[in-house]
Amino acid sequence: MNRREFFHRTAGALALVSIPPAERPNPRPLPAPGLFFDPQDLPRLRRSWSLPLFKDYAESMLAASLGADEKFLRGELDLNNQIRHLPRAGAILERQSFAFLMSGEKERLDLARLAVEKILSFPVWDYFMEAGKDIIGLQRAPETAIAMSLAYDWLNPWLDENTKKRMLAQIAEKGCLPCYRSLHGMRYPGEVVGWSYAPWAKQEVRDFSRWPVILDKTNLKAIPICGLAVGSITVRESDPRSAEWLEMARHGYETIAGLYERDGSYPEGGSYGDYTTFHLLLTQAVLERKLGVDLFDRVNYNGYVEFMLSLQLPHTAEPKACVNFGDSGGGLQSAVSFYVARKTGDGLAQHMGLEHARVHNPFSIIWYRPDLTAERPGPEHHLKRWDLDWTIYRTGYGLDDFVVAMRSGGPANHEHGDRNSILLKAFGEVLLADHKHPTYDHNNPGWALRSSPAHNTVLIDNQGHQYHDGKEGTNASQAEARIIRSGRRDGFIFWTSDATQAYRLVLPDVARVLRSVFVFTDAPAIVVIDTMAKKSAPSLFSAHWHVENGDRLGSVEVSGDGFAVKRPEAGFYARCAGLERLAVSAEKIPLPDEAGRFPYVRVGSAAPAMAQTIMTVGLACRSGQEPPVITVTPQGTIQIQHSSGILRARVNDIDGVPFLERT
C-alpha cells in the first residue's frame, strides 16, 4: 500500500512513519512549547484530524494537487505580485506545513520548505505604503507573517539553521515592522504623511486621506494586530523591537474590542465578523499562552457566536449561507466556535462548530475538544433583536425553515444603502434577497447594487437614503435607523424601525419614514407597512422587492395589486394596498447583462402625494402548492387563505405607527 492508504487505514496513527530517518529531528530535548500547542499535543491533534467531523476537510487538504502547487511556486510565481501570488504561496505554506504534521508525508515537507524559500524571495510582503517609501501591513504582510511564524513553529526540527535565521529576520522586517507602521498610523493618524498603493500595484483609484481613521474601526485592523502579535512572539528572542511591537498589538486589540456591541453582535456582518474574530482569537490565544496575558473578556465572544448562529440562512443554492446585510454573506469558521467552547465550556458554541461551520482550518483541529457536550438552540433563540438594531426571526435552522431578517441600525464599514431592508427565506429558497457581495470598485456599474434601489426598502422620488460615492472604499455612510418598538403577541411578532434621518440626509423635506413588520408564527407570512410623509412638497413613494437571481433562476410576476417572486422550490405571493392609489410593476436594475440580471417588483404611488402608506401582505409557499388568496384593503383588513387555513388580522392606526391585531 502507498503512504496515503496506510495513513487512512491506520486512522491517523501518524507518528513519523513515512519520514526517512535522515529527515527526522535529531534526538534532543523537546523545544519550548509552541505558539499554539506543545509537541506532546500532536497525538491529540492527529486523533482529531482522523475524526469523521474533519474527514472531508482532511481529505480535501490531502487531495490538493502537490503538482499544481509546485508548478505555481517554481514556474508561475511573480515576486512583485503581493496582491494574489503572495497569499497563494502563504496558503500553500500553511496547508502543507499542517498536512505534514498530520500525515508525515515527506513531499509535503519538501513543498512547505520550497514555499518558505519563495516567500523569502519576495522583496516586500505588502503593497501599501506610507509617505511613498515605507511598506505598511494591511493584509498581505500580516497574513504572511502569520503563515511564516506557523511554519517556523511547526517545521522547526526540519528546517536548517540558516533558513530559520532568515525566516526570523524577515518575519520581523517584512512582517512585524509594516504591521507596526499601519497600527501606529491608526493610533496616531495625525502623524501619517499619506498612505497609498505601492507604484507596482495596479489598483483602482482610491482616496486614502482618511484611511488611518476609517480602518481603525474595521476588520482591516484585526489582521495587522494578529500578524504583529504572532510575529512578535516568534521573533522576541532575536529582535529587541518585539516588546514595543507587542505593546502596539495589545493596544490594537483593546481598542478594536469596542467594535463589538455589548451583546457580541458585530456591525460588518457575518464574513467580516468571522475574519475579525478569528484573528483576534489567534491574538488572544498566543498572548495568553506565551505571555500569560488573557484578553478574552474584552469581547463578548459567547454572544458573538450566538449572533452568528442567528445569522444562519441555509438555502438550496448555498447551504452554508448567512444573512448577507452589506457585503457579508459567509458564516463562521469552526475554529472560532471551538476556541470559545474550549475557553468557556459553552455548549452552544460547541454546537455551532459542529453543526453550522462554514469551513474548518488547522485551528479547528487545534482547538477542538471532543469531550465538550454540545447544546442545541431552543425556541428562545429564534427571535433575536441585537444591539445593532438588527432583528431576525426564524422557525429553525434547516433548509426549509422560515427566516425573516431586517437591517435597521447605524452605519458600518462594508454596509449598503439598506436601512429597513428585509430578507426572507422559506422552503430552501431566498425569496426576498439582498444581492450578494457587489463590487468594491465605485467605477464599476455594479456599484449600483450597493444603493437603496437594489434593496428591499423604500424610495422617495426614486431616491434612497444617504450613501457615499465609494471613492474612499466601502466605508460607512452617515445613515441611521432605529427600532422604536418591538415585541411579541399571540400569533405574531413585530417591530417598527424609523429611518427618517437616513432619508432626510438626501431629501430634507422628508417628515417620516417608518417600516413596521409583523411576522406570523403559525404560517410563513408577513405584513410590511411602510409609512412615509413629506413636510411641504408632494412626492412619489415606492417600495422595492427583489428576488434571489444569482443563478438566473429567479423571476417576478405582477397582476393588478399583487405580485409573486418565484424560485425553483418556492414562491412568495403578496398583495398590496395604499392610502393613496398604487401602481405595481415588474422592473429590472439597469445593468449590463454580464453584471447579472436583477428583476424586482416596484410598488409605488400612482401620483405624487404628501404622504403614503403601503401595506404589503405576503406568504411563502412550496412550488406546486396552491398559491394563497390574499385580500388587503386600504382600511387595514387582511385575510390570507392558504393550504393550511385562514389568517385574519386588522391594522390599527394605519397612518401613524401601525399595529396589528389578529381577528
Describe what you observe in this structure:
The chain is an alpha+beta fold and 663 residues long. It has a domain at 382-662: Distorted Sandwich (Beta-galactosidase, Chain A, domain 5), CATH 2.70.98. It is 31% helix and 22% strand. It has 17 helices and 24 strands. An eight-stranded antiparallel beta sheet has the order 10-11-12-13-20-17-16-15. A five-stranded antiparallel beta sheet has the order 4-5-6-7-8, with no helix packed on it. β7 (421-426) and β8 (429-432) form a beta hairpin. α7 packs antiparallel against α8 and α10 (222-235) runs parallel beside α12 (270-291). It starts with a helix and ends with a strand.
Keywords:
663 residues, alpha+beta, Beta-galactosidase, Chain A, domain 5, 8-stranded antiparallel beta sheet, 5-stranded antiparallel beta sheet, 17 helices, 24 strands, disordered N terminus
Summarize the structure.
The chain is an alpha+beta fold. The protein is built from 17 helices and 24 strands. It has a domain at 382-662: Beta-galactosidase, Chain A, domain 5 (Distorted Sandwich).
CATH class of the domain at 382-662: Mainly Beta
Uncertain segments are 1-32
How many DSSP-defined strands?
24
Widest sheet: strand ordering: 10-11-12-13-20-17-16-15
Biggest sheet overview: 8 strands, antiparallel
N-to-C CA distance? 72 Å
Task: Please tell me the CATH architecture of the domain at 382-662 by its name.
Answer: Distorted Sandwich
CATH topology of the domain at 382-662: Beta-galactosidase, Chain A, domain 5
Number of DSSP helical runs: 17
Percent in helix: 25-40%
Structural class: alpha+beta
Inertia-based shape? globular
